[in-house]
Amino acid sequence: MGNSQTKEVIKYVEAPKPPPTPMFDKPWRTIDWGHNSGLLEELKEYKPEAEGVEHLRVLVYGPVGAGKSSLINSMNTALIGRMAIPAGVNNTQADEGSFTLQYKTHRIRKGRGSSRSYFPIVFNDIMGLESDQSVGVRTEDIKLAMMGHVKEGYKFNQLSPLSPSDKYYNPNPRPDDKVHVLVLLLSTNCPETNSPMIQKMKEIRQAARDLGIPQIAVGTHIDEICDQIEKDVKNVYMSKSLKKKSTGTILSGIRYIRCRIGVLSIR
Q1: What residues contact 9, with CB distance under 8 A and at least 6 apart?
Q2: Is residue 113 in some structural domain?
Q3: Is residue 8 situated within a structural domain?
Q4: Which end of the chain is more exposed for a tag (fewer CB within 10 A), N or C?
Q5: Is 93 a domain residue?
Q6: Cβ atoms of 66 and 128 closer than 8 Å
C-alpha cells in the first residue's frame, strides 16, 4: 500500500462587517456650545426698545403634537431655574387632535412669593395646525393673532375664523398686543408633512413676512429618532439619521431642540 496523504483544507470565513455607526466622524453643522449661561443672562436682562412695547410677544405655532406647550414650559423652567409647567401638555397621540384650544399668554414671573415682576418676554400658545381645512387652528386666526386682534381666552373655532363682531376680537390693538417673533415647531419624528399642511405654513409665513415679523423654524423630538442624541444632545449634528431626515425636506435648514417637560436644550 502506498503512503496516503491527507490534504488539510483550510477555509477562510470572512468576518461579518460591523453594523454602520449611527454617527458621523465630524458634525455636519458647526455649533458653539459654550455660551448658554450668557444667553440666559441676556434674556433675563432684555428690555424691548420699541415705543409702547413692554414685552416681546412670541407666538408659537405648528402641527398638533410638535411640542408647542412643552417648549413654553421648558423656556419658563430655564429662565426661573426651577420646574414650571404653566402650559398644559398633551401626552396622548397627535391624531387625537390639539390639546390647546384657547389663545393664552404665558408670562414668566421673576422670583417667588408675592413678587409680581415678570420677564419682558411672553409666549402665546395656540391650537395646533392640521391638514384638513375643517380641523385645527385656522390660518386666518393665526394672522389675526399676529396683528394683535385676538384677545386673551379666545376659544378657537375650527369651522370659522374670529369675526370682528365677536367679543374676543380686538379692534384697536396696541403695539404690546401684536406678535413680535413667530416660532414654527416641527416634529422630526412625525411622517413627512403633506401638501395641505405645507400650504398652510407657507401662507402663515408669508403673512408674517408682510407684517415684518421675524421668524424662526425649530425641529423638536430629536432624541426620539436617534438614541445617541438621547444620551448627549451635543450629538445632534453628528447623527446620520437626523441628517437623512433633514436633507431635501421641510426640515432642512432649521435648528433643532430637545424639549420635554422641565428640560430644554436649544442649539
Answers
A1: none
A2: yes
A3: no
A4: N
A5: yes
A6: yes
